[in-house]
UniProtKB/TrEMBL annotation, chain A:
Residue ranges of domain MacB-like periplasmic core in the record: 20-239
Record-linked Pfam families: FtsX, MacB_PCD
Name this protein carries in UniProt: ABC transporter permease
Cellular component, GO, one term: plasma membrane
Transmembrane segments: 21-41, 286-304, 338-359, 421-445, 673-697, 725-743, 763-786
UniProtKB/TrEMBL annotation, chain B:
Cited Pfam families: ABC_tran
Name of protein: ABC transporter ATP-binding protein
Cellular component annotations (GO), alphabetically ordered: membrane protein complex
Family membership noted in the UniProt record: Belongs to the ABC transporter superfamily. Macrolide exporter (TC 3.A.1.122) family.
Gene3D superfamilies (alphabetical): P-loop containing nucleotide triphosphate hydrolases
GO molecular function ontology, one term from the record: transmembrane transporter activity
Keywords: ATP-binding, Nucleotide-binding, Translocase, Transport
SMART domains: AAA
Start and end residues of each ABC transporter domain: 3-224
Highest rank taxon of the organism: Bacteria
Organism this protein belongs to: Dokdonia sinensis
Regions that span the bilayer: none
Length: 796, 224
């Protein structure tokens, strides 16, 4: 019996190749997209699950106070970790992590070879006790016990030394520190938040010797004993803080975040060192997208199958008169669906594997084919297979099998009408879903364009940021500066601690001594030329002085408008006023610049200051504004200039405009995935529409024939057939627009600077949907209209 | 003369062999005639009607309609010609299920771009004439076979054609309904409408002014 079902299903597939191809293609494209998204989602959700003690690991969060909204940092002061391990019994271990140079690159010398290392961390020995990273050489538990020790990942070891048997060998960092290799660990998997390629021992750093409570730059993980009450620990941390820091200097408080939330639930947190940041919203959006596309694909199947099964009603009727039960017919239709979805899934897997490299590229993930074929995923696939079969097969199976034989062979108009209504409804749902996708993508792109073209208050184009750390160690920064000043391509050049888009030092700006909370002030140690280099608009006063003696105790400060406004002053009034901003007791306002977006457009502009206080922060970056010219020659002359001053120093640079774009990587990614997938979704929806149009044309064969005999033109018939579908698309638009508006309005709330949605995305989407639908339908309609009417009329 | 067919050949090729549907067929029709075409199934009655109605082409021969050569015409002018002068009545009525009686009758006028007020008048005339005013808002499925055929004839007549082509118009009707329809045809013919009907029934054929017998696509002169 079952064999028979399969045989019939197979023959049906082959007897109508056009429908079968549409059906299977639509379903497999939909499934492939769903599979890719599930892969991405499960990859995101699997973050940090490989660590055996994951349930006992927490990350310390720091909440800043301030009038202008609180910020959450993922860094803590260096003094915190030892203090809480000593004070709080539940906290067994703690490890501080510091990304080299606050996220900058390191120059590594191994033997005679130089490398630029982007992923160098410094951490306490406890790091590898908390995170059980497997070690291939050396003892992970003790690898970072001593100063000047370093552990390398396997791939770095191979890159630097060509072998992993390198215990005891030495590396040179930034032409200064000599580190001894004490361990080699397995490369951290791509779903580990910890992304260090090299970890040096924290004891090497000055931060270890003099841990402070003010500089909060250290990502801190703690290991708590089983069954710890986290709230209690948090309050104990506060007690420790109170013990060590006087109330007035506490510009922050602490919290804890379980490791399992670190990857996805850190959206909006600042200063995370890991480059592998996830976003629960992205995961949620994509999950929704996956289901939406799966639904579209299933509806496609239902539509095409019911359309086709009308042709087969006679065969169902005959089976019934021959004694087939309703159950056996249901089983038969499900068997057919199961077979087709099976083929579609197989094809979908192939498509998934083919599309994977491309998908990895746009998602910047490294999902491997093995993940597609892993048992858990195949198990999930089986689930998708069964669910798709049940959902997609439900309508044909239940709808057709219930009919009495008489009705099937000679359907009553009411039945026909109901079936038609359901099919139309399905097409509307399908199109509405596609329209929501397109509108969303259009809005995303509008926002992206807005962010890329918005006047940021400074000009990031034609500015190169060159890592000047090496020059600092050689005390050759002035020589470097002069060298670049004399280069004719260079317009202006400045040395600064950081640049917009890169975190600088956080301080607190207070109106006066009574102002306890103050506001958070980003401070950037720089020089006079910064105003020219960044094209900042000076509102009052002057730029920082050109010459500054190291012995000079007066600190000049260039504030932005926001900071001055916090002080309750106009730009003109502010000039010459003393300022209380943890910049020493002799800090004066020298100039005021207009506000500029120094962080991403997600956040509103806060208070910002350029200053020339010589102690504390280093000016790590040489910022060069250059004239328009051939880029490769520009870069090579710059490199030559750089190498002339610092022979052997690695030339590490980035473009400011590229750095600014990087701030929106996650959104770009979502928009890109969304764009591709919504094109595919509308393609699948069109397959459904195509099938339905073909079916309707077939069903109205007789009517078309009559009308032609009565004198209707081809255009008239095409119009007649298309109008109905256009109406459906119209209804879909009406349903989808408010939903899309609602969804995208919510999405836009993430941005402090955002577009108004406007009508363009809707007009664009509406026209797109109508055009594509019209194209699809008219193909069928014209074909039907051109047919000789006699054939249609002779039937019966 | 209304129309003239000269040496018409029409065939289909099946398995490499030509099967003739119309074989050297000649026919002249004067205005005002009522012609019955008789012959067994497959003798080419319907094919002949389709050719006369310009719904179907032929391979060889000449066809003049109102002294215009139909065989040399393009599709567009042909369709203009038959829209203007020919009305069709079918055995299965072929009404459009989704349209009411009124709308069905109105359809040919829509395709001839007749103005709305004129359409109303013409359709009302037809409804009056066939006594179906009361049924104008009903759908075809709500009518009996005879009534449906009445609507079919009304629809064929509404555009005031010179020629009515009827393919077994009473094939699906009982004898009483048949008689009514045939008497209607006779009345129409008396008013000047040329009618060509294909039929199996001798009694129906007897309403005509002339009978043509077909066999295997040829005139069966022995019976005429």
């Amino acid at each position: 019996m079952f064999k028979n079902h399969i045989k019939i299903a197979w023959r049906n597939l082959r007897s109508d190749p056009k429908f079968s191809v549409l059906n299977i293609l639509g379903l497999s494209v939909g499934l492939a997209i769903t599979l890719l998204l599930f892969l991405f989602i499960s990859h995101e959700r699997s973050f940090d699950t490989m660590y055996a003690q994951k349930e006992n690991i927490q990350r310390v969060l720091l909440f800043t106070d301030g009038d202008q909204g609180e910020e959450t940092w993922t860094n803590a002061p260096a003094a915190l970790a030892p203090a809480i391990v000593a004070d709080i019994p539940e906290v067994k271990k703690a490890s501080r992590m510091y990304r080299h140079n606050f996220g900058g690159n390191a120059f590594v010398k191994a033997g005679d070879e130089q490398f630029i290392e982007k992923d160098l961390y410094w951490a306490d020995a406890e790091l590898f006790q908390i995170f059980n990273v497997p070690f291939l050489r050396g003892n992970g538990q003790k690898a970072l016990d001593k100063p000047n020790a370093v552990a390398l990942s396997q791939s770095r070891a191979l890159q630097y030394f060509g072998t992993i048997d390198i215990i005891g060998k030495t590396l040179n960092i930034d032409n200064g520190l000599e580190l001894e290799v004490t361990g080699v660990y397995e490369d951290l998997p791509s779903n580990s938040t910890l992304d260090a390629a090299m970890v040096g021992s924290f004891k090497t750093l000055n931060f270890y010797k003099n841990p402070s409570w003010s500089n909060s730059s250290f990502e801190t993980y703690i290991y708590t004993v089983d069954n710890t009450n986290i709230d209690e620990v948090v309050s104990k941390i506060q007690t420790t803080l109170n013990k060590n820091v006087v109330k007035e200097d506490q510009w922050y408080s602490f919290g804890l975040q379980p490791l399992e939330e670190v990857h996805l639930y850190s959206g909006g947190y600042l200063d995370s060192y890991s480059k592998r940041d996830g976003d629960i919203n992205e995961v949620r959006n994509l999950t929704l997208l996956a289901f939406l596309i799966l639904i579209i694909a299933c509806i496609n199947y239902m539509n095409l199958t019911t359309a086709r099964s009308q042709k087969r009603t006679k065969d169902v009727g005959i089976s019934k008169t021959l004694g087939a039960s309703t159950q056996s017919l249901i089983l038969r239709f499900y068997t057919e669906t199961f077979l087709i979805t099976g083929i579609a899934i197989a094809l979908g897997i192939v498509l998934t594997i083919v599309a994977l490299p491309f998908f990895n590229d746009i998602t910047s993930r490294t999902i491997v084919v093995a993940e597609v074929l892993s048992p858990t995923f195949l198990f999930l696939l089986l689930g998708v297979w069964i669910i798709t079969t049940l959902v997609a097969g439900s309508y044909p199976a239940l709808h057709l099998s219930k009919f009495s034989p008489k009705e099937i062979m000679n359907p009553s108009p009411a039945r026909k009408g109901a079936a038609k209504l359901v099919r139309k409804g399905l097409v509307v749902v399908q199109f509405a879903a596609s329209v929501i996708l397109i509108v969303s993508v259009a809005v995303m792109y509008k926002q992206m364009t807005f962010m890329q073209t918005k006047d940021l208050g400074f000009n990031p184009n034609q500015v190169l940021a060159i890592n000047a750390t090496v020059a600092l160690e050689n005390k050759s920064e002035d020589a470097l500066l002069n060298k670049f000043k004399n280069n004719p391509i260079v317009q202006s050049v400045s040395l600064a601690q950081g640049y917009p888009g890169l975190g600088v030092s956080g301080r607190t700006l207070r109106k006066n001594d009574q102002d306890e909370s103050g506001t958070n002030l980003q401070t950037n140690h720089s020089d006079a030329a910064i105003v020219d280099v960044l094209n900042l608009k000076l509102l009052a006063g002057q730029p920082l002085p050109r010459v500054k003696q190291r012995s000079d105790t007066i600190v000049e400060v260039l504030l932005n408008k926001k900071a001055v406004a916090y002080l309750g002053l106009s730009p003109e009034e502010a000039i010459g006023k003393k300022i209380n901003a943890q910049l020493g007791s002799n800090a004066y306002i020298r100039g005021v610049v207009d506000d500029f977006n120094f962080t991403s457009l997600r956040a509103p502009i806060g208070a910002y200051a350029f200053h020339n206080r010589p102690i504390g922060e280093y000016k790590n970056y040489l910022l060069v504004r250059f004239r328009e010219s051939d880029l490769s020659t520009t870069l090579s002359t710059f490199e030559a200039d750089f190498k002339e001053i610092i022979p052997g120093g690695a030339f590490d640079y980035s473009f400011l405009d590229k750095n600014t774009e990087k701030l929106y990587e996650a959104e770009q990614r979502t928009a890109q995935i969304g764009l591709i997938f919504s094109i595919l979704a509308i393609f699948v929806a069109c397959l459904g529409l195509f099938g339905l149009a073909a079916f309707t044309a077939e069903q109205r064969d007789k009517e078309i024939g009559i009308r032609k005999v009565l004198g209707a033109s081809v255009f008239g018939i095409t119009k007649l057939l298309s109008t109905d579908f256009i109406k459906l698309v119209g209804i879909a638009l009406i349903i989808a627009f408010p939903l899309a508006y609602y969804v995208m309005n919510n999405w836009l709330q993430e941005f402090a600077y955002r577009i108004s949605i406007g009508w363009e995305p809707f007009i664009f989407t509406g026209l797109c949907a109508l055009f594509v639908a019209l194209l699809t339908v008219s193909l069928q309609s014209i074909k039907a209209a051109l047919r000789n009417p006699i054939g249609a009329l002779r039937k019966e | 003369m209304l129309l003239q067919l000269k040496n018409i050949y029409k065939w289909v090729t099946q398995g490499g062999r030509r099967i003739f549907l119309l074989n050297d067929l000649n026919l002249e029709v004067q205005e005002g005639e009522f012609i019955s075409i008789m012959g067994p199934s497959g003798s080419g009655k319907s094919t002949l009607l389709n050719v006369i109605g310009m719904l179907d082409g032929f391979q060889e021969g000449e066809y003049d309609f109102l002294d215009e050569p139909v065989h040399a015409m393009k599709e567009k002018s042909r369709s203009k010609l038959y829209k203007e002068y020919i009305g069709f009545v079918f055995q299965q009525y072929h009404l459009i299920d989704e349209l009411t009686v009124y709308e069905n009758i109105e359809t040919p006028l829509l395709y001839k771009n007749v103005k709305s007020s004129e359409r109303k008048a013409l359709v009302a005339d037809m409804l009056d004439r066939f006594n179906i005013v009361g049924k104008k808002d009903l759908f075809p499925s709500q009518l009996s076979g005879g009534q449906q055929q009445l609507v079919g004839i009304a629809r064929a007549l509404v555009a005031k054609p010179k020629l009515i082509l009827a393919d077994e118009p009473t094939g699906n009707l009982n004898s009483q309904q048949s008689t009514e329809i045939m008497e209607l045809f006779r009345d129409l013919n008396k008013e000047g409408v040329t009618i060509i009907q294909a039929t199996h029934s001798e009694s129906n054929a007897s309403y005509g002014t002339r009978t043509i017998h077909l066999l295997d696509g040829m005139r069966d002169r022995s019976k005429e």
